[in-house]
Design brief:
Proteasome_assmbl_chaperone_2, PSMG2_sf, alpha/beta, Proteasome assembly chaperone (PAC2) family protein, globular, 8-stranded mixed β-sheet, Rossmann fold, 410 residues
Amino acid sequence: MIELEGVPELIDPVMICAFEGWNDAGDAASAAVGHLDREWKGEVFASLDAEDYYDFQVNRPTVALEGGVRKITWPTTRLSVVRADTGEKSRDLVLVRGIEPSMRWRSFCNEILGYAHELGVEMVVILGALLGDTPHTRPVPVSGVTSDPDLARSLDLEETRYEGPTGIVGVLQEACAHAGVPAVSLWAAVPHYVSQPPNPKATLALLNRLEDLITVRIPLGELTEDSRAWQLGVDQLAAEDSEVAEYVQSLEEARDTAELPEASGEAIAREFERYLRRRDGQPGPAGGHATESGGLEGGTGGPGAPYLRDPSTGHGRPRKPSPKDEVAKDDDAEDTGGGTEDGAKDVAGAKDADSAEEADDSREADDAKEADDSQEADDGQGAEDRDASRRDEGGTDRGGDGDEGSGSDR
């Protein structure tokens, strides 16, 4: 039976979990929850019974002297509550921090979910860190996954498709799904060649991603400076070993090559649309690429095209005309003859000009024909005159017998 004594009523509570061990490369995840507990001065209100879940030969208890008195600390999982109050928004965080249990994982998860139910937790966020082929000189990749398709769409997360061995993070997320509790896992990739804890850079990356998810500003304290110091230290160690330096360079080239598609035309267009949305406070177009005239390729363009969407109804609405649209409209009017009436006049004028040109061509053809006929007539008349002249010179026409006889008589 779960007893919650001294726990006040919580405001929009979110449960943040992290477990040392297989799911915590570089102690990045457990350090993130520890940072939240220190910054907001968390108060422990419950601890799970170590006898039920831990093998003490694997996770041994520790002994310490406190005021000259020996005290044994048993490995367990503790729950604390903090008030995340940044002045703008307040909400409570239930922090679950412990060691991955050695046994009875289903009972362990059921007990955690029992506390979540009693406290009215709205969502469970589980932090994890894994070893990956990522260079320490680049930003730490953090992936957010969930097994809930609706949650994946609403929070812009990936729907988990992992198959293979899993740890307590995967088991707890699946238990949340069966219990109907929204659950998200945030995973940071830690360079495998520098996996020893601590890794403040990975811890910082997890906290930044968590801040975006729960919409609460998280005080980072000295974590930013610790992250820079950690990277400088790894840089020095890598510079002292030529093989390590060469390997890091190969990882950098592979990472940069993998990210080249982000510089594609579509990515640039999406980034430009995001800039316009931030500037105008409006959602962007549903599809297509922005064109110079303000429309969309592959859609209905133009100044009046409904390429902006109303966030309340989801329907398109006309874009407000801009000064650039007015200039474009004037230019189009000038190019087409200044409107319908002027355009009709221009068409009529062009038709008259064509008709006049055809009439001129017809007149020129008639004149040429008359000139040819006149020339032929002149040529015929000249031939007749030459024949007559030849008859006068001979005194007779040799084409007739009587004439020939008369000529010989003379």
